[in-house]
Amino acid sequence: MSTTLNQSSSQPRQHWVIGNWKMNPNRATAQTLAQTLASRLVETPLHTCKTAIAPMSIHLITIHEILMKVHTSPISLVAQDIAAARQTGAFTGDISADLIRETGAEWIIIGHSERRTIHHEDENLIGLKLNAALDAGLGVIWCVGETLSEREAGQATQVVSAQINAHIDILTKIDPRKLIIAYEPVWAIGTGRTASPEDAQQMHAAIRQLLTEIRAPLIQTSLLYGGSVKSDNAHSLAKCPDIDGALVGGASLDADSFLQIAKAFDIA
Questions:
Q1: What structural domains does the chain harbor?
Q2: Which is catalytic among the residues 15, 64, 112, 204?
Q3: Residue 120 catalytic?
Q4: Diameter over CA atoms, the chain
Q5: For 210-240, how does the pLDDT look when each residue is reduced to its tens digit (9 = 90+)?
Q6: Annotated catalytic, 167?
Q7: What's the sign of the alpha-carbon dihedral 46, 227, 186, 78?
Q8: Catalytic residue among 59, 167, 184, 204
Q9: Which of 217, 219, 189, 190 lies closest to 205 in space, CA to CA?
Q10: CA separation for the pair 260, 234 (Å, rounded)
Q11: What is the predicted pLDDT for the residue at 2?
């Protein structure tokens, strides 16, 4: 495995396991899942790994109310997407960062491969969304990754680097505490396939090197792996020095599975 850069600070990077529920589940199931996760994390708290969940936007307020009933909520709330436009206006179907913030969400997923491929979101739109989220005081979970054809052509690192370099203006000013980058190879999203720990570590090390070259404090950015993460491969990924957690899809819809993954990353 590639070795990690030496950290410029004595502070360890924050570990995160974030559940992206995508267009799942219905309201009753979402409520039960959120309550179960919160209760179990209160009963058996994690030490070094933070957790978050990203339900559909129609569930955000309800889930926030459930989490707030816990004295100190062990789970942060994440929105799956935002509009490029700020505040309110004539944008049918959109939800702005300002309105998302009112739901209790603290973070936004931006640039997910499904938004890039299904909705044809390009770097220009992603940049607008990044700025909108940060201007509203929200943290961003910024997704990057290559397609199978790009990896097979030996262009994976080049593609991911280009996605990051497209937004250097944001990276030169962002508060590192407001940034999480999730590397999600497109060919591993929802397919059951996952990058080997060696391949994932190599890409994470390359991303960290690039971030540090752009701005030294970004060495502290939490880098997550996303791509068919499950309880049976989480431990091997957690051993990689540059992988600080996971952006979990389908496995986050099962409380036992999600918590097992979080425990795998609950390491010093």
A1: 15-264 (3.20.20.70)
A2: 112
A3: no
A4: 51
A5: 999 999 999 999 999 998 899 999 999 999 9
A6: no
A7: negative
A8: 184
A9: 219
A10: 8
A11: 38
